[in-house]
Amino acid sequence: MARVVPDPKPVPVAITRANVWDVAIRWSDGHEAVYPAPYLRRACCCVVCLQAPVAEDPDVHPLAIDAVGTYAVHFEWSDGHAAGVYSYEYLRGLCPCPSCTARALPDHHRS
Question: Is 5 contained in some domain?
């Protein structure tokens, strides 16, 4: 009988609104983070957004947040954009919390 090995990559266990606009994600490893809506919108990696810069809009916010299977999240944005799919791995890599951003910096950039 084959042994099932759990995937070590964290997955969201809850995705909610942190406030009126921002997104809160609680991960399976216990990590919790708040993603500012404009930050997430600018991070869209769909082909449209990769070909042209995303306009700065401090008021942009998600109108809808939907799961895509068991691997990603789709946002419908207040600026009319709805083409991007954010994989769980990509979202975790975008985590803006201080501990995650500190880990992402090369050693010579850490204080």
Answer: no
